[in-house]
Specification:
Structural class of chain A: alpha/beta
Number of domains of chain A: 1
Order of helices and strands of chain A: EHEHHEHEEEHEHEHHEEEHEH
Oligomer: heterodimer
CATH class of chain A: Alpha Beta
Largest sheet of chain B: 3 strands, antiparallel
Shape of chain B: elongated
CATH architecture of chain A: Alpha-Beta Barrel
CATH topology of the largest domain in chain B: Outer Surface Protein A, domain 3
Distance between the termini of chain A: 19 Å
Shape of chain A: globular
Largest interface: A-B, 46 and 50 residues
CATH class of the largest domain in chain B: Alpha Beta
Number of strands of chain A: 12
Structural class of chain B: mainly alpha
Order of helices and strands of chain B: HHHHHHHEEEHEEHHHE
Largest sheet of chain A: 8 strands, parallel, barrel
CATH superfamily of chain A: Divalent-metal-dependent TIM barrel enzymes
Bound molecules: fe (ii) ion
Number of strands of chain B: 6
Strand content of chain B: 5-15%
Helix content of chain A: 40-55%
Chain lengths: ~280, ~250
């Protein structure tokens, strides 16, 4: 398998993906919520893109941490979408975006508590049973804890283990949270169930004050996040890596440079690992 | 439920704060950081509505628009998991709250509805096109049309005029919106009452064009069949060029 990084698909540069003249991602990630149950122009574009690139799905509205019941109609549509486009990885955020039957369309922090671990894992299992596959849960960035009774790494680990799901490790989110909540990013990552990592996200962020970073996906990846990424790759299996860029979109050449940077690190770390492992055989 | 009431309460309070921005006690939160959530969440709603309703947003006084959006998000529970569909709920909310009267914007319901329909038609799932034959004589046949369309009635001509000018022209306005197959673009055409009757009957696909002509002559009290035919054929040819009329049903 060639080592290629993917990119989050945005309508702003759909044409670029179709022409493939500058941007050459290994795969595309998109939010099923924005693409399921649609037709017309964007459905055509999507069908063309699906012919050209493998697709991963990164959901927004499942709201796995919600106190509300799971929305089975929604899940049915997601399932149909995953099947229609032959999508192997369906990831969602370890957060909630809906409560008391109101959608907020953003990622809110789940209380890091034992009862929430049980509640969330049981919901993940329910989703996995319904979809007939494991899903991949992402560590999210958060700006304040809510009623926490355990640390974040323990919360994530317990959920992933209890639900027996996969982990999407967002390296930038770890960096952002480590900065915002004063913990050590590497210790945090070491405490996660790294054998469950199936997918990695990388992104840029915005420092809005001396003590706060907001996870905007609106800037280039900074060097300390590249370093953390490189360090992380030594500890996880070879998995797909995705570049997230949602705002302040730069020239395509600049985005391709970021993909190249990621691929260079992936190649360096994983090809070396493969060589060593092969020698051991 | 595995979730304890106390944990649920923290999540519920957190969400309520994000929706209305009113201070509320939430266990173990950083009070300086909370407002970022309110800002981020509210911006998603605001941006989505501004993008979906660019004309309304442009012409309605900013203070009024902001009040409408604030009231909507704080008191209405957005129900749709697909954020692009959420603005439909805003249309219904403003109507139910009678904002046309409250903010003295008579055109409001029509304009929001019209702007929403353009998005809905643009995005809606593909419909099955009928099997058509383009060579037969239209008169003896049932005309086939693009299934991806809507015929609506408005009280104010928000599709023809700027909103505050349309507000002075209350009446009955009929409008055909449809999605072009090739480009996916949404077109709209202002319809007379007679042409509305014609199109609605064509869409039903129960009668031949000739039978519809007979109904029109009777209902509208028209004597000049030749003139009617020539006007209708001109109109249908135009709709064919635009991609609404497809031909005749096989
Ligand atoms: Fe991410």
């Amino acid at each position: 398998m060639s080592i290629k990084a993917g990119i989050g698909f945005r309508k702003d540069f759909a044409e670029e993906f179709l022409s493939g003249s500058v941007l050459k991602p290994g795969f595309l990630e998109l939010a099923p919520e924005n693409w399921m149950k649609i037709g017309g122009y964007w459905k055509k574009q999507l069908n063309q893109l699906a012919e050209m690139y493998p697709i991963t799905a990164h959901g927004l509205s499942l709201s796995i941490g919600s106190p509300d019941e799971l929305d089975m109609d929604f899940l049915k549509n997601v399932k149909h979408f995953l099947e229609e486009y032959n999508i192997e990885i369906y990831s969602e955020h370890l957060s909630f975006s809906k409560c008391d039957n109101a959608h907020l369309y953003d990622l809110l922090p789940i209380p890091f508590r034992e009862d929430a671990v049980k509640h969330v894992s049981q919901r993940i299992k329910q989703v996995q049973d319904y979809l007939g596959r494991q899903i991949t849960i992402e560590n999210v960035s958060y700006y304040t804890p809510v009623a926490a009774e355990m640390d974040e790494a323990t919360f994530i680990t317990n959920v992933v283990k209890e639900a027996d799901c996969k982990l999407l490790l967002d390296v930038n989110n770890v960096f952002v949270n480590a900065f915002n909540h004063n913990y050590d990013a590497k210790t945090f990552i070491e405490n996660l169930p790294l054998d469950h990592v199936e997918y990695i996200h990388m992104a840029g962020h915005t420092k809005v004050s001396p003590s706060l970073i907001i996870d905007t996906h609106g800037e280039a990846i900074i060097d300390p996040v590249y370093e953390l990424f490189e360090w992380t790759l030594e500890r996880v299996n070879q998995v797909p890596v995705l570049l997230e860029r949602d705002f302040n979109i730069p020239e395509m050449e600049e985005m391709q440079n970021e993909l190249n940077n990621l691929e260079a690190i992936m190649t360096k770390k994983w090809e070396a690992k493969n060589v060593i492992e092969n020698r051991n055989i | 439920m595995l979730l304890k009431t106390e944990t649920y309460n923290q999540q519920s309070n957190f969400v309520q704060y994000c929706r209305d921005g009113k201070e509320v006690a939430i266990l173990g939160t950083n009070p300086e950081r909370l407002p970022h959530y309110r800002r981020l969440v509210f911006n998603i709603i605001k941006d989505t509505l501004e993008t979906t309703f660019p004309i309304s947003f442009k012409y309605i006084d900013t203070e009024i628009w902001d009040e409408m959006v604030y009231n909507y998000f704080s008191s209405h529970k957005c129900n749709d998991p697909q954020v692009w569909r959420m603005p439909k709920e805003f249309v219904d909310f403003c109507k139910a709250e009678n904002y046309t009267t409250k903010f003295n914007l008579p055109f409001l319901n029509d304009l929001l509805y019209f702007e929403w329909l353009e998005v809905e038609l643009y995005m809606m799932e593909d419909d099955t096109y009928p099997q058509v034959n383009s060579t037969k004589d239209w008169l003896k046949e049932k005309i086939a049309v693009n299934p991806e369309h809507k015929i609506i009635k408005l009280e104010y001509p928000v599709h023809l005029e700027k909103p505050f000018e349309a507000a002075n022209k209350k009446g009955d306005y009929f409008l055909l919106l449809f999605r072009e197959k090739e480009t996916g673009k949404v077109q709209f055409i202002n319809l007379s009452v007679l042409f509305t009757f014609l199109i609605e009957n064509i869409v039903l696909a129960e009668k031949t064009l000739e039978e519809i002509f007979n109904d029109i002559l009777y209902i509208f009290g028209i004597n000049d069949l030749e003139m009617l035919r020539s006007e209708v054929f001109k109109f249908l040819e135009d709709l064919k060029t635009r991609g609404f009329v497809l031909g005749v049903h096989c």
